[in-house]
Amino acid sequence: RKEVEQDPGPFNVPEGATVAFNCTYSNSASQSFFWYRQDCRKEPKLLMSVYSSGNEDGRFTAQLNRASQYISLLIRDSKLSDSATYLCVVRDTNAGKSTFGDGTTLTVKP
Amino acid sequence: SAVISQKPSRDICQRGTSLTIQCQVDSQVTMMFWYRQQPGQSLTLIATANQGSEATYESGFVIDKFPISRPNLTFSTLTVSNMSPEDSSIYLCSVYLRTTYTFGSGTRLTVV
């Protein structure tokens, strides 16, 4: 079993749709969580950190469930420009180690 | 977040040759990370480059194949040695600074 597992996707949704991705992790010592976005042929870039109480940034909402060891990303009112691969990142601060998920590909269509 | 300059952005190399990739960071960082990303796949950590000590390699990667230099806190190089077509991939450097991973723009390597 992988340390970090994401919905395999791909997700193909129409503009305006709401889409949610999940990511589960196996290391209970993980302390920091992030969602990164990677556009085709580009490097990954931070989308948002995930806080224990959940956090929102515009159309994007991230949540953390420590008991079940998963994080989620909700995108509301999808735009064509949201098309990308979304990577879940889990960090064990004490070990100084981060693990990247395999990514979930989202395509938003007109 | 940090700003990373990575070069070359792409190269086409003959098998059996070597390519050195450079990353320059605008901030001093203790560790720099080198990743490989095959098309359509996620990031695979090759090694962690520490200033003043040997790099730490992940399982499946060895120093003879991927020698790393880290002469100071803002610069690192990764060499892909004795290349074969299987080494064709995107190579990325990264730093973790102020709770954010920042990546170089990547080097797209094709070995023919």
Kindly report the oligomeric state of this protein.
heterodimer
Q: In one word, what is the shape of chain A?
A: globular
- The low-confidence runs of chain A, each spanning 5 or more residues with pLDDT under 50, are none
Question: Low-confidence spans of chain B: pLDDT under 50, at least 5 residues?
Answer: none
Mean pLDDT of chain A: 93
**Biggest sheet of chain B, open or closed, and with what strands and sense?**
7 strands, mixed
- Helix and strand composition category of chain B: mainly beta
How many beta-strand segments of chain A? 11
Separation of the first and last Cα atoms of chain A: 37 Å
The level of helicity of chain A is: under 10%
SSE topology string of chain B: EEEEEEEEEEE
Q: Count of helices of chain B?
A: 0
Radius of gyration computed on alpha carbons of chain A: 13 Å
Radius of gyration of chain B: 13 Å
SSE order of chain A: EEEEEEEEEEE
Question: How would you characterize this protein structure?
Answer:
The complex is a heterodimer of chains A (110) and B (112). With 110 residues, chain A is mainly β. Chain A has no helices and eleven strands. In chain A, the strands form two sheets. In chain A, strands 2, 4, 5, 9, 10 and 11 form a six-stranded mixed beta sheet that branches. A five-stranded antiparallel beta sheet of chain A has the order 1-3-8-7-6, with no helix packed on it. In chain A, a hairpin with a 2-residue loop joins strand 6 and strand 7. Chain A is globular, with a radius of gyration of 13 Å. The model of chain A has no long low-confidence stretch (mean pLDDT 93). Chain B has 112 residues and is mainly β. Helices cover 0% and strands 54% of the residues of chain B. Chain B contains no helices and eleven strands. In chain B, strands 2, 4, 5, 6, 9, 10 and 11 form a seven-stranded mixed beta sheet that branches. A four-stranded antiparallel beta sheet of chain B has the order 1-3-8-7, with no helix packed on it. Chains A and B meet through strand 4 and strand 5 of A and strand 10 of B.
